[in-house]
Amino acid sequence: xxxxxxxxxxxxxxxxxxxxxxxxxxxxxxxxxxxxxxxxxxxxxxxxxxxxxxxxxxxxxxxxxxxxxxxxxxxxxxxxxxxxxxxxxxxxxxxxxxxxxxxxxxxxxxxxxxxxxxxxxxxxxxxxxxxxxxxxxxxxxxxxxxxxxxxxxxxxxxxxxxxxxxxxxxxxxxxxxxxxxxxxxxxxxxxxxxxxxxxxxxxxxxxxxxxxxxxxxxxxxxxxxxxxxxxxxxxxxxxxxxxxxxxxxxxxxxxxxxxxxxxxxxxxxxxxxxxxxxxxxxxxxxxxxxxxxxxxxxxxxxxxxxxxxxxxxxxxxxxxxxxxxxxxxxxxxxxxxxxxxxxxxxxxxxxxxxxxxxxxxxxxxxxxxxxxxxxxxxxxxxxxxxxxxxxxxxxxxxxxxxxxxxxxxxxxxxxxxxxxxxxxxxxxxxxxxxxxxxxxxxxxxxxxxxxxxxxxxxxxxxxxxxxxxxxxxxxxxxxxxxxxx
Length: 485
Hints:
The chain is mainly α. About 70% of the residues lie in helices and about 0% in strands. The protein is built from 25 helices and no strands. It starts with 19 loop residues before the first helix and ends with a helix.
């Protein structure tokens, strides 16, 4: 874990251009309370002793609309919001050229719109925005090296570029871009206690720790604290629930989900929360709630990501519940609906190709283990311990699911035995069971301070190619190797 240094005294020479009202509006935007944020910015400035700056208001207004597009994916709003983004970009380009906020805001707007363009399938445009954002923030850092907000943009870009697989790193070099996950983490860590951007920096760090570095407990500690301090923040709640579920804490996630209420047609984050409720219920074996939640998500969500996966999960929920008629209906819909840009949708498409080969008890073990419903998983494992599996993939996946169960329940010796068995029996196959087993063995040996063995298995994880989840597993292995003692 990176130790966060105190703010540099040089920061004091940069005036804070956010007045009190704009600070509240920014926080509302970050909390996904867009209407409250915009209302604050439109109120007459009669009580605030600090001066108002149009640049900060433009930045906050754009943040609201960028988040709305990224989360809601409403394509009908894209042209209008893009026109507003262009006008704000132009206005910021004409703003005070001596201010360190000018290039920072310009870089942030480019970065925001890159995320928007990725959501709407404009990958080339997104890449150009990322390149421009990097150049702008790099220039601002050279002009104002002690201006702390630079670290938010620079840190995130360094992490994003550092996470790109090795085989594509030449593209970054060609474009003059630089990536380094550790450097990005250090930069974001330095911003954790910043008066304006500290919360956002902590959220970004938590996401990187949970989804890239396999440090869910560290991430959860931070997000739990943020959630306890601000229970009305939808963004913090969403990230908290997501990381809880990733860490197999389904009941805790369900508790937070149940505390959030909103009408079915309210903020689009509630539609994503419906999707998470579906995930949790499917893991728990509550198929009725899972079906209802996924259907609510599909009815209200206007985007294209997670649509294929939600249909696939509806197929699974019906099929696991013994309803073969509706399972067939949703399998057909899943095959013809949605896109495969998101990782979940890619996996759904792959699973649908062999849906007739999905093994019911193994799928139930997998779901229960992923959700932290270990009593259910343990019972299923014991029931099928001596089962004679018809297909090789099922036999290997059963061993892999046992390894994951033992790992998550703290029976590390059994986990190691089963991970090793997965690797030895998976030769010549492009399933993700073996590379992830190697990665998990690396973590277990690292935890036991057997560093030579840990390094051996992290490197082995990197040796596998062309399989589902390759990018995620490879990034985790590379990061682990960099942080080895």
